[in-house]
């Protein structure tokens, strides 16, 4: 073992300890949202903060910076895609970003975010935006300070985007969103009459929903030894190790929303499950960006989970699970209900066609807030005006309007675009998978989901953070970010759903 190899070994050792602390903090968070008695909350907040702080100190330690400097020649001796070069490169990128932000600013942002969350709950309970306003103002001020740490010479919003979508520029997002807006607005206007989705409302015992969801997920490739499914309030997925994937969901007995959220979270879980296990306990062992992560959940939830071919196979099982509800319903009626298009007040309730408009209006408002062209005091009115312009709906109060999402109250400016990018990327990947694998619908009708699962593992998941999001998209989908496949997919879907049914 040469001296340099020993130094690389030291680096991997340090990174392993950081990863252990982060995953332990993640486990405390998972437990808080699934198992913890509510009165444990105050100490739990301290426990999580302590682990996070220690991990952050290790991530920004000067010794780590020195180690990374020493390893420059070692990095150059290895192939760019190799484990060795990638660990050094990605760790250096994270380190250089982390050390630009003073620890006090970071702590202030975290603290303001958690106060903001509580103020958001109170503002919603009282339908009074003014309760949240001072914390939003503080959060935006800290966000501006954060941006200034990076001395951006381009659009300051680039800095916020980079947190979730490394390397992505505001101008690229804007170009894609402008294109979406141009097509989606007339598409929605053309859907004059929403389909009847009555069959999706009724009584669905949560235990039966859970059994059915697990049956589907096992068919899709959830291996029981490496996954769990637990109940929570706001569903999420978490990976503690390549073979320790935690999905959460929320089954309500009035509808099947919880089943669909299982399909969504499965996509996140599968991404983490199929990252090369050799990357475990390093910064490579995570999805490459929020948009890519969301592309995986959207792909399984929508492209597979809202596909008639999938339901030709699954519907007899669903009918056997809920015979009273579905014995007289055809698979076509069920599929149409599942794909109902209608503008909704809430982003989280929206369908595939209207969803991106909810995101675009938030992206535009975030940029206006950052530049100062919209003041936070005027945000509720600006939000309502855009809702009316894009979705033809006027919120009745702030809970239906600007207070519907938690992100801004926690200081999460820059996150929203990744949801829509996920939709766009999901169809780009889907087209390429279909070109490689042949007719996916035919396979789904026979209950064969493994080829898609494996294709995603090979072309997307296994890479972890080795490639940049741009490189990954080029390699896996064969081109840069492009809204056209997504728009074409929506057009085909609307034609299929409304052919002969609506005016
Ligand atoms: Zn998601």
Structure overview:
By secondary structure, the chain is mainly alpha-helical. The chain contains 22 helices and 3 strands. A 3-stranded mixed β-sheet has the order 1-3-2, sandwiched between helices. β2 and β3 form a beta hairpin. The mean pLDDT is 95. Bound molecules: zinc ion.
**How are the strands of the biggest sheet laid out side by side?**
1-3-2
Q: Can you tell me the overall shape?
A: globular
- Number of helices, where a helix is a run of at least 4 consecutive DSSP H or I residues: 22
Radius of gyration of CA atoms, rounded to a whole number = 23 Å
Briefly, what is this?
The protein has 503 residues and is mainly alpha-helical. The protein is 63% helix and 3% strand.
Keywords summarizing the entry:
503 residues; mainly alpha; 22 helices; three-stranded mixed sheet; single chain; binds zinc ion
Secondary-structure blueprint:
Elements: H1 3-34, H2 41-59, H3 62-70, H4 72-77, H5 83-98, H6 103-126, H7 133-148, H8 157-164, H9 170-190, H10 206-220, E1 227-231, E2 237-241, E3 244-249, H11 257-273, H12 290-304, H13 308-321, H14 323-326, H15 331-338, H16 355-371, H17 379-391, H18 417-437, H19 440-445, H20 450-459, H21 469-477, H22 484-498
Parallel strand pairs: 1-3
Antiparallel strand pairs: 2-3
Helix pairs in contact: 1-2, 1-3, 6-7, 10-11, 10-13, 11-12, 12-18, 16-17, 16-18, 18-22
Bound molecules: zinc ion.
Zinc ion binds next to helix 11 and helix 12.
């Amino acid at each position: 073992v040469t001296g340099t190899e020993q130094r690389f070994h030291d680096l991997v050792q340090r990174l392993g300890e950081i990863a252990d602390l982060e995953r332990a903090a993640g486990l405390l968070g998972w437990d808080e949202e699934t198992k913890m008695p509510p009165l444990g909350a105050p100490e739990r907040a301290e426990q999580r903060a302590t682990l996070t702080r220690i991990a952050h100190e290790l991530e920004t330690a000067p010794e780590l910076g020195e180690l990374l400097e020493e390893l420059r020649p070692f990095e150059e001796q290895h192939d760019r895609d190799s484990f060795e070069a990638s660990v050094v490169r990605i760790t250096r990128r994270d380190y250089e970003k982390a050390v630009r932000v003073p620890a006090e600013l970071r702590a202030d942002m975290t603290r303001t975010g958690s106060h903001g969350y509580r103020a958001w709950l109170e503002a919603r309970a009282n339908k009074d935006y003014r309760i949240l306003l001072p914390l939003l103002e503080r959060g935006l001020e800290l966000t501006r300070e954060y941006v200034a740490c990076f001395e951006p010479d381009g659009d300051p919003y680039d800095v916020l985007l980079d947190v979730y979508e490394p390397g992505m520029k505001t101008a690229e997002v804007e170009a894609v969103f402008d294109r979406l807006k141009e097509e989606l607005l007339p598409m929605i206007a053309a859907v004059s009459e929403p389909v009847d989705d009555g069959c999706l409302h009724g009584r669905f015992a949560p235990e039966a929903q859970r059994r059915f969801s697990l049956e589907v997920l096992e068919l899709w490739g959830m291996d029981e030894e490496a996954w769990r499914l637990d109940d929570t309030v706001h569903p999420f997925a978490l990976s503690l190790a390549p073979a320790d994937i935690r999905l959460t969901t929320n089954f309500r007995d009035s509808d099947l929303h919880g089943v669909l959220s299982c399909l969504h979270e499965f996509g996140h879980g599968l991404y983490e499950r199929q990252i090369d296990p050799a990357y475990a306990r390093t910064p490579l062992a995570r999805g490459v960006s929020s948009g890519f992560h969301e592309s995986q959940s959207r792909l399984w939830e929508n492209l597979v989970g809202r596909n008639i071919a999938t339901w030709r196979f699954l519907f007899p099982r669903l009918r056997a699970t809920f015979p009273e509800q579905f014995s007289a319903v055809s698979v076509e009626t069920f599929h149409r209900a599942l794909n109902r298009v209608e503008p909704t007040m809430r982003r989280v309730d929206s369908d595939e066609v209207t969803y991106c408009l909810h995101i675009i209006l938030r992206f535009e408002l975030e940029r206006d807030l950052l530049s100062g062209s919209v003041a936070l005091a005027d945000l509720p009115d600006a939000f309502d005006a855009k809702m009316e312009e894009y979705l033809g709906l006027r919120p009745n109060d702030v809970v239906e309007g600007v207070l519907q999402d938690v992100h801004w109250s926690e200081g999460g400016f820059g996150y929203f675009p990744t949801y829509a990018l996920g939709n766009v990327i999901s169809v780009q990947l889907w087209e390429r998978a279909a070109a490689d694998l042949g007719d996916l619908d035919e396979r789904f009708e026979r209950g064969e989901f493994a080829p898609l699962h494996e294709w995603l593992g090979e072309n997307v998941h296994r890479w972890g953070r080795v490639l940049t999001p741009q490189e990954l998209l080029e390699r896996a989908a064969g081109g840069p970010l492009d809204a056209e496949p997504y728009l074409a997919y929506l057009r085909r879907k609307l034609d299929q759903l409304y052919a002969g049914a609506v005016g």
